[in-house]
Structures are given as C-alpha cells and as structure tokens.
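S.,

Sequence below, as promised.
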Amino acid sequence: MYNKITVGAVGAGDPAPIKVSTEVFEGYGECVKMSNGTVELFVTKEVGPRVICYRYVGGKNIFGTLKKGEGDIKTELGTWEAFGGHRFWHAPELTGTYAPDSNPVEFDMVGRSTARFICDCKEITGIRKEMYVRLDKTGSCVTVTHTLTNKGLLPVTVAPWGITIMESDGTAIIPQEPYAKHSENVLPVRPMVMWAFTNLSDERFKIGKRYVRLSCDSSLKEPQKFGVTDTLGWAAYAKGSRLFVKRFGYDKSYNYPDYGCNVEVYTAGRMLELETLGQLEMLKPGESATHVEHWYLFNDIELGSTEESIAKKLLPIIHKTDK
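The prediction came back faster than expected:
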C-alpha cells in the first residue's frame, strides 16, 4: 500500500531552489513557471488555479487544454469554466462544486521549491481552496497538496478532489486488486462504482484481471465514467510512448465519497479526467481537510496492448515511485 504522505513538510527542508518565473502560457495569461531543468510546470494565476502544463523541458504537455467555452457549465452560481489541466474541486458533486473560479488567485512561495495558490471562493461556497505545488530538485516528481478550509459559519461535509484533464486519445489504467482464484478467496475485495450513464459495453472500456482501462476517443462524444476503491495507491495514463503516474495514499478507515471511491475516471469526446479523492468529512468552521497527489512523468515507454505487456513495463515503474 502506498503511504508517501508529505503534507506536513510542505515548504520545509527544501534541498535547493528551483527556477521560478512568471510567463504567459498559450492563451492562459500570466502563469507561474516552475522548472528543475528536467521537467517544467505552468500554473495559472489569472484563473483557477490550474496546473495547465506538465512536461519535460522542450517536450509536449501531457495535460489537456481546452478552448474558450469548451466544457463550460452554467449553474445558478454562474458559469464555471473548465480551462483544462489539473484543478481542485470538492466532493460531493453538487452545485457548490461548480463555483466559478475565473478570477485571479493569490500566489506566493513557501520555502524554495513550493508555490502556494489560493482560490478564495468563500463568498460563494464558504470554502477556501489552497493548492501547494512542489517540484523535486531532480527528476519528474511533483507533489500537489490540496487543502479545503471551512471559512463559513456552519459545518460542511466535503472531500478534497484532484482532477486532471489529460491530453486526448490516451488510456487511463487503474489497477485491479491482486487476482486470486475462487478457491483461495471467496470474499469481495473492493467496490467498482457506476454512474447512470456508465455503459460497460462501450468499446472504450477494457476490463481484465490486472487492470481496468478506459480510453479517450475524440470521435465518441457520449460520456463514460467509473470509480473504484484503489488500495494500491496509483493510477496511470498512457499516450503513445509517454506515461503519467499519480500516486496517493489510501486509508481503510476513511469515508471516501461516491460509495467509497478514491479514484474516478471520466471521458467524453477528446477529454479524459483522471481523478483522485480524499476523505469525506465534516469540517467545523475553521477546520481543514487535505489530500496529496504525487506525479511522475516518463518518456519512451511502450506499454503494448495486452495486460501482460502492460504489467511487464508498468509495474517496475510503479515500484520505482513507491518510496
């Protein structure tokens, strides 16, 4: 089980500074650029925040970006704009989840390798969102800490929710629990959760003994979604020879949203969202909840199309990230 939790060390003991600058990124206005010479990130300051780009220096963005108006949702609170990249929501998915976050965010540095972004939506929802983005000194590891704080007058029940829109036409890979024969284990090992629009006969699904895979196909507009309890602490997305891995903790004592989901995958058209969720808990005024993701990026990884070929290439990589 993956237990690399570093939230208590945000900004503390950073071994060396990384390069941080302010640059305009591809129509998203002024962004904070973070680079360690191997990978680079762009995080929006004028909206969101969104980690709008994650890539090797000089390489392609593994995150998906959306055109103006694409993915927007109109609610009684106003128009929520999707933008793309990685965002910070809160579950359960109700009207307040879609509180517009199209205004500039607060930004500062915490230590030498961690940037903090604050979306102060408390006037709408009573909840303040803080996203800490820390880049390792070397390699591709990024630690994203999502913190919700109840700034209202009454208790609220919420869970932090990290949602990443991936580059289109790749495949999300979610691990199954270790396979065992009926004679070895007759008890259930985890839930797999469906939505009213989930269709497991859709050609984008591939469900096997080792993995559940859901692919993004730009030509298929009908949405699909599923969720699981992922006790193994990882989820991945493959696009060509590039691989993105999320690592996260799991605690069996936690009350996860959506019938126990800590991982969910959604796709429609050219959009695929790779999502992780923290504990659903009641926050009294002034209390906070935190959820941590660790990201890794790899090039020149040919997984193949079978479960055996995927396991052969992917599992050694997962083990390398299991610190």
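The longest helix spans residues 307-320.

Coffee later?
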